[in-house]
Amino acid sequence: MLNEIYEHTKEQMGKSIDALKRDFSTLRTGKVNTNIVDSIRVDYYGTPTALNQVGSVVVTDATTISITPWEKNLLATIEKAIQEANIGVNPNNDGDFIKLFFPAMTSEQRQEIVKQAKGMAEKAKIAIRNIRKDGNDKVKKLEKAKDISEDESKKAQDEVQKITDASIADIEKTLSTKEVDILKV
């Protein structure tokens, strides 16, 4: 019974950390990454579709992303979607493909992105603490129903706290790695 609570808690906290890593992948670092355009949706025959589903998205060098649509008639639609996404660059359409030229980041921009990363990490920590609360509530419910003793309940809550501490440490490590990546020139 308690092992199920531990496993569920670990699984949920792992999902929160995975979500944080996905969020981090959308942040810009020293060199561009195709994840920057992952959230962009293109109107593909009336259906909002991910940009990488309507064309080839590749990084051609440290500051350039090239987008080649599968269908030429989508160029204008893709260009419009990129402009509306407000990712900090204007698309250059040459009739065959779209290039996004990202200027080198200033130290102020880097600091701003670090702030965003810290905000994302804080949201993940809040999610972890909420999961800890759910785990502890389940343990207390078992104690109240007399399925476990008071001592077992205390030990179980300590175990949930250990799982929480490990997850928070993982978030801190992920954040510091990302911070170094962002600040590296």
Main beta-sheet annotation = 4 strands, antiparallel
- The CATH superfamily of the largest domain bears the name Ribosome-recycling factor
What top-tier CATH class of the largest domain fits best?
Mainly Alpha
Sheet with most strands: strand arrangement = 3-4-6-5
The secondary-structure element order is HEEHEEHEEHH
Average per-residue pLDDT, rounded, comes to 90
Query: How far apart, in Å, are the first and last alpha carbons?
Result: 51 Å
Shape: elongated
Q: Quaternary state, please?
A: single chain
Q: Give the CATH topology of the largest domain.
A: Topoisomerase I, Chain A, domain 4
Strand content range: 15-25%
Architecture per CATH nomenclature, i.e. the level-2 architecture of the largest domain: Orthogonal Bundle
Unreliably modeled segments: none
Domain count: the total is: 2
Tell me what the structure shows:
The protein is α+β, with helices and mostly antiparallel strands and 185 residues long. The protein folds into 2 domains: 2-26 and 106-183, Orthogonal Bundle (Topoisomerase I, Chain A, domain 4); 34-101, Gyrase A, domain 2, CATH 3.30.1360. The protein is 60% helix and 15% strand. Strand 1 (41-44) and strand 2 (47-50) form a beta hairpin. Helix 1 (2-25) runs antiparallel to helix 4 (107-144), helix 1 packs parallel to helix 5 (150-183) and helix 4 (107-144) runs antiparallel to helix 5. The model has no long low-confidence stretch (mean pLDDT 90).
